[in-house]
Amino acid sequence: MADQISVTYYGQSCVEFTFNGTKVLLDPFITYNPLAKYIDISSIEPDYIFLSHGHQDHVADMERIQKKSNATVVAIVETAEWVRKQGVESENVIEFNFGGTLTLPFGKVKMVYALHTNSTPDGNYGGFPCGYVFFIGDRRVYFAGDTGLTLEMKLLDDLDLDWAFLPIGGHYTMDMFDAVKAAGFINCKNIVGIHYDTFPPIAIDKKKAIALFQESELRLELPSIGETIIL
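Now predict its structure.
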């Protein structure tokens, strides 16, 4: 039986994967996103919450969602320490670091490099930012997190990635042009755009972005907030 993977987009970089029935939420920032104001976060009950880094626009709803769902939170060591300080019990926190691979009930997850900065909302050092590669059976999904274009991405080109979630808004991360280059670096033709439109500096022309990717023989998906797509 083929592995079943779907994803719901909640705005900014917040997505929730369903991996064969297991719900995995990344970078929960919904309540303070005016574009996602109609999303009821009380209905979001993941089994796992992964954080790419500790900036407010990636962790703002972590505590509320975790306490309702009792989800396990996964992050790099220093960001994981901040998670525990928010009252999340240690048994519900998994910390690991670059190069590490977790084996979890839904599959394997490898932490990979991201070119960005990282601090937690209390102003403390949050460790390095990161991305994740999810190995679900024979499927491979890359969530880049907040990152600029970096040659480190070329280390992923032999993984036969099925999908990649790449920031495209520019200003704080890659823009759409660098994301096209990144798709070449990672050897992946199926892209979902993240980290765009939430604030004026990262607003994009969606039609221009889709056309740009098509010109490079790439597929760019820009789901609406709240929309679920099958991967």
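The two ends are 15 Å apart (CA to CA).
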